[in-house]
TrEMBL record:
Keywords: Coiled coil, Kinase, Phosphoprotein, Transferase. Residues 34-77, 154-229, 637-684 form the PAS domain. The keyword Phosphoprotein applies. This is histidine kinase. Residues 1-28 form a coiled coil. The keyword Coiled coil applies. The modification 4-aspartylphosphate is found at residue 1064. Residues 777-993 form the Histidine kinase domain. Residues 1013-1077 form the Response regulatory domain. GO terms for molecular function: phosphorelay sensor kinase activity. Its EC number is 2.7.13.3. It comes from Candidatus Desulfobia pelagia.
Amino acid sequence: MTAAKQTLEQLKQRVSSLEEEIIRLKDVEKELCDSKELNHTIFFNISCTVFLTDDHGKFLFISPNVADTFGYSPIEVETLGNISKLLGINFFPRNDLGEHGESRNVELQVTDKLGQGRHFFVNVKRVSLKEATFQYSCRDITDHKKAIEMADENEKRYEKLLDSVTDYTYTVNIEDGKPTSTTHSASCQAVTGYSADEYKADPYLWHNMILEEDRSTVTEKINTLITGKRSDPFEHRILHKDGAVRWVKTTPVPCVDEHGRLIAYDSLVTDITELKESELQESRMRHRLEAQWKIASLKDADLQTICDHLLSQMVEITESWYGFYGFFNEDEMILTIYSWSKGVMSDCAMHDKPIRFPLDESGLWGEVIRKKKPLIINDYHKEHAGKKGFPEGHVPLTRLMVLPVFSRDKIVAIGAVANKAFDYSDYDLKSTSTLLSNVHVLLERQEVNEELLKKNRALKALSKCNEALIRSTKESDLLREICKILVKTGNYPLAWVGVKKDDTEKTIFPLVQFGDASGYLEDIRISWADNEYGRGPTGMAVRTGKTQVLKDIALDETYFLWKDQARKRGYASSIALPLRTKNKCWGTLNVYATKPDAFDPEEIELLQELADNVSFGVTAIRTRAKQKTAETALRESQARMQAIYETVQTGIVIIDGENRQIIDANPVAAKMMGLTKKELIGKTCNEIFCIPPGGICPVLDLGKTAENAERHLVKTNGEKTPILKSVVKFNLNGRKCLLESFLDITALKQAEKEKGEMQAQIRQMQKMEAIGTLAGGIAHDFNNILTPIFAFTQMLQEDQAPESQAYQDLGDIRTSALRAKDLVSQILTFSREKEHELSPVKISPIVKESIKLLEASFPATIKIELRVIAKDDVVMADPTQIHQILMNLCTNALHAMMESGGVLEVRLEEKDRNHTSSRRYLALTVCDTGCGMDKFTQERIFEPYFTTKDVGEGTGLGLSVVHGIVRSFGGDIIVSSELGKGTTFTVYLPLVDQKAVETLHDQETECPKGYERILLVDDELAIVKSMGRILQSLGYKVTERTSSIEALEVFRVKPQEFDLVITDFTMPNMTGDRLAQ
């Protein structure tokens, strides 16, 4: 505590002595001012040196004291001749001084005789004294000037002394733990700019001048002191009266009473602004040197890494939030941003963040390029020339500093920082500019290195691609390897080969690629048509056949369809190189880069050379592939022709045109001749073919052609075989030869014969079909005749006693009518106009009746034996078709025994179809002792149109129809035969339960009667009468009509009088179905 008090006392003594020195300096200043005034008074009261001159300045009078003022004697002055030579000016104010007595004052510095400069106050007055017209009164004011200069110097020394005062004290009185008043020493003005009186007038002035950012810290320190705790010296910033920010160090010393209570505290305030500035400068210098050292240590890094580090240091040493660094192109018209500060991309909300900026679209930063000097704006919110505003989502700016980087008088790059918390200063400008200049040397060297490295990579890639061209044998493998080399060795992010397709959309299909792991090529659509999909570099390259370079994907409007996808993957520029074969472009080699304008002329030339080499390589591979394919095709063709030659079923011989000998033959030719190939070679053509008339060969002797000419081949045994012969002339190893082919047409001739027979059968069938149609018409008419016979016979029988002769005669009539009905049914079946309805049928009566009919038509040489063994013979069948089966089988047996006679046995018996089934079958067996059949005939016996009879004796349909009928009954037919011993046909038909059939018969009841009213319509009068009589006999009231039109009119007049309408289907004018509708 004692040491602190001693320090405080020493400080107070120092402050007191400084205040006394200030008071003394003020007294000196007052004395100097008084002295200045006194000198002026003395000066104007001493004698002057006077000269009188004429209008031309010629001396007319010289004051005697001229030697005291100018050092020249009057005579010496007079020899000068003119006052201008004495005063050193051409001063003749005759035009300025018009009237008599008018004067003018001027101060001049004149060199005296000793060469010393002296100051004079000259009064020029127009006078009229004889010849004299001007009076010059010159007063030496040199000492006066020196006194004034000394006073000014003393004043400056005083001001400097005041400025050098960096400490002052103030006292704060405390009552009840609260500040009540403050007293500031006089030297406070030197530190803060405010006087003690101003502090006294405003108790809060000291608090308010503390920078807002530091107030909480100062308040905390003071509160610590007021609570009685020790407070160490602290530093903070204040706002000087002139608006400048000053750093001060406050050292508080508490004062307590005898009870230890705080009653006041004194504070020594020291201006440490220069110290802080020095520290700041030192820190900045250290940061700058560290920044340069860090960047210098990146000599082996790539250009992007150096740019990123440079921008990071720019932002750090200027204490900025944002920044960017970019390069200009050759004509200083496009800026490409190489590095953004980290905060920009995260804070920027623009949808499309560009990296290329045209100068003609720029705002304030463009002024740097246009004016070629740095730009600092610390009030960005205000209006500025060249300011264009921000696009939507741009980072807001408050302060901005942009600096150009020069190289050989051209701006090659710019660096910019923004949004510093305080204003950018000249120091920021100088330090950042120095950093940029120093680093740009490294960047230029690095850029040169990168260019060399890029060219080396391109040359290396070209070399490797040429090696691949030599090695590759497959087109797709070559193209894939080229793309891989460009990415791996050329350091490009993506390379791909597109092939044009001749589809409707003119698609360019990515054949191979390397580097696209993100699916870029899957997301885009490219065409070589002249539309929006074909105006990119790839489509243009295919369409024009010229190399297309896309310098900037972000700015090129032709790439707008693919821009977003490309930029998302980091692609900034690209080149499309056409691939040609015979000057026809078939595809493109596409290479992408991560930087805009990445392809310089040398690199483009190397890539074009590569594309030409690839085109040549692909052409060579395709040529080799075509040759290989052609050779393979030739070998395959030779093998195929040899195989055909050896295996074809046509005989082929090659004949020498000179000696007409056979020099080669295929196996079929030798076989057809009955010789070996060795035996056949050497024979003449006349030995194997029938000799033409006159022994002249039409082909060799007459020059005719032979194609499919019918000839005969003469075998070794003399047998002649019909052949179709064709002859072709050709050259074989320089010899004129003939190739003769001949086809055995024996089978063809047989087929033609069979074809004639088949056509005859078809004509027979057509006849039968016509007969069937005619029979069907007759059968319908016959049915109409039978219907009234049945009806009237039945009615007459009902009126007769069963035991009477008339009843029996009527029964015979009805039986005959039934047989006629069956005959009509057979006719309708034959004409296919009646569908068969299956019902339980007893077979034995039908078989017996059929045998009776056959016995009358069979010759006496054939004996018919009938054996009915079966007890149950009821099957589900159609009686007419049963009759048809039996007639067909028996007729075939008749033909088989026609020449030699024999026995026809017909059996009807129960048999098991097989031993595994419990179902019972009725077997109808027809067995003859005729000629029998071979196996081939048995296999085809049921085929339609197959027949062994002569033409006109059968259609070949009988057994196929029988087979179909049996299968429709659910049965089967089996044939067994042996040549010379006869044939047996067995038809198996499933039996029906006899008890079920009897039950159905038991359920039959007498025909019911009624009383309803019926309208009966039929165009046959006999049918209408007979049916009308039957219905009336059953109690019904019948109205008869033979015209459908009349019947309709009757019904329309009184429809309520009819309960039922019975109508024929086929009638003239209106059919039955239409009448019913």
